[in-house]
Amino acid sequence: MIDSVTIATPRAYPPRVTAFTERFWSALAQGRLETTRCTACGEATFPPKPICPHCWHGEVSWIELGAEGRLYSWTRIHAGPAVFSAELPYAVGVVDLDEGIRLAVRLHDDPGTDWQCDAPVRLVRLDYADGPLLAAVPRG
Amino acid sequence: MTRRAAIIATAAIPVGRHQTGPDDAYQAVEHEIMAQVVVDAVGGTGIERSDVGAVIMAQPRPYTRQQYFSTFMTAYLGLQCRGTVMETLGNGLTAALAFDKAIDEVLLGRARVALALGINMETAVSSRDHMMESMRKTGDVDFHVPAGFTPISWYAMDMMRYMHEHGATRAQVAAVAVKNRAHAALNPLAQYRKPITLDEVLAQRPIVEPLGLFEVPPRGDGAACVVVADEDYARALGVPYMAVRSRSFFHEGIHQIGDRPRDMIGFHAAQRASAAAYDAAGVSAADMDLAELYAPCTIVEVLASEAVGLVSRGQGAAAAAAGETSLGGRIPIATAGGLTSRGHPSYATPLYNVVELFAQLTGQAGDRQVADAELAIMSNELGNYNAAMVHILEASR
């Protein structure tokens, strides 16, 4: 299960939901981080995809991922696109989950959080007014 | 002997603010600017207009009013082409693709002379509005952009990781900005020419931590023309020229990040493409006299210089700080001033890099001339160097 943080505003640039990725977003809404794994070669991928990028097999199954990982790298953005202006400055990072999956997410930033490369982090769900996004917070 | 392509002429306008706002009485119009640059490049060289058989243009920004500008420019110049008239697109590679395709037109015998053109007008559009478009070109629109990633945020993460892994300091990497400004001071085409100190670089406001204003690219407008011909044509003209010794491309099959943890700062595509280009040319990195590396931020020049083998892994920042990559140093990089000071009219930037190497390899670089420059490497990229295109260029005087 992944924890949630309530954000009063809507998402600045909401992702599109497809008939295929709806499963990912509804699982996330229920606190589960899911992605796809190939039924032929067994490789997992992120974001979830209806085909396997590792062998092009066309059948995948859904698996649940743990929320813990490490911060590969990060930055804090002070100049951003118009839709993100109200949130500046904000931090983003690349997270490597313990299961060996890499993703790029917002870092939920108490002002001045001292993010460090390789520091342990945990994924959380940011519950915006219009829907969820993944983010990472410091762990331990 | 295999047919070789040669660059026989170039021209460009100084990088800066050229785009006009909607309320300006007189407008800067792309047709007039581009046509003048072409005439400046070709004029006085003896190139026959009727020999121009291909026009390959970097696709202009969406803010350029004339769309499908390549065909309108071909008409404006009264060119009849049996080769190709087209536009290229590929993020930072955009103008490199125009250069590369112009070379192909010559090598395939479709044109005796091919023009590679680029015009980039964007400074009348605010950065916050510009980024609404550019963020969609540099991040996955459903799984990266919603988190707020900006184009240069990926490079900033390279910087954090580089400092973490190699113990480099921000000041060492920032030395690239000081060095490139000193080079730009000697380049009439450069956007920012007033020398700066390391303290000034470090004191700028943060843009994407740890990078400040002088460590990231300024916005700029520009227009450039590169004239490519068969080497025999160049010899017959009797002008100094720059030959294309080899070319290579590699896309590593990921964009920004893949789905697996892996090294992000080795710039593997640049490693692969440069190794193949050196091999095809029968040379090594140690043979290079200078380099133009597409590097929007200071850290990108450091990482690219390591990836193409000009300095050893993890030593790029220290080498820059020690002056090894300065004019007069062991391997001068970005003698035009780099993207941070020469300027970065992005959809024309790779052509500006060709313009600089042409000046250097034909001995016309004035106060910033690299003595006896014979061989140069040029690299261009898209993503976070997820794809790299490398050319090895040679002086023929």
Strand order of the largest sheet of chain B: 3-2-4-7-1-8-11-10-9
Helix content, binned percent of chain B: 25-40%
Order of helices and strands of chain A: EHEEEEEEEE
Q: How many domains in all of chain A?
A: 1
User: β content of chain A, as a range?
Assistant: 35-45%
> Structural class per helix/strand content of chain B?
alpha/beta
Number of strands of chain A: 9
Biggest sheet, spatial arrangement of strands of chain A: 5-6-7-9-8
If you consult CATH, what is the topology of chain A? OB fold (Dihydrolipoamide Acetyltransferase, E2P)
**Poorly predicted ranges of chain B:** none
- Alpha carbon gyration radius of chain B: 20 Å
Low-confidence stretches of chain A: none
The biggest beta sheet of chain A reads: 5 strands, mixed, barrel
Under CATH at level 1, the class of chain A stands as Mainly Beta
Rg for CA atoms of chain A: 16 Å
Compact summary:
The complex is a heterodimer of chains A (140) and B (397). Chain A is mostly beta strands.
Q: What are its keywords?
A:
heterodimer; A: 140 residues; mainly beta; OB fold (Dihydrolipoamide Acetyltransferase, E2P); 3-stranded antiparallel sheet; 1 helix; 9 strands; 41% strand; globular; B: 397 residues; alpha/beta; Peroxisomal Thiolase, Chain A, domain 1; 9-stranded mixed sheet; 13 helices; 19% strand
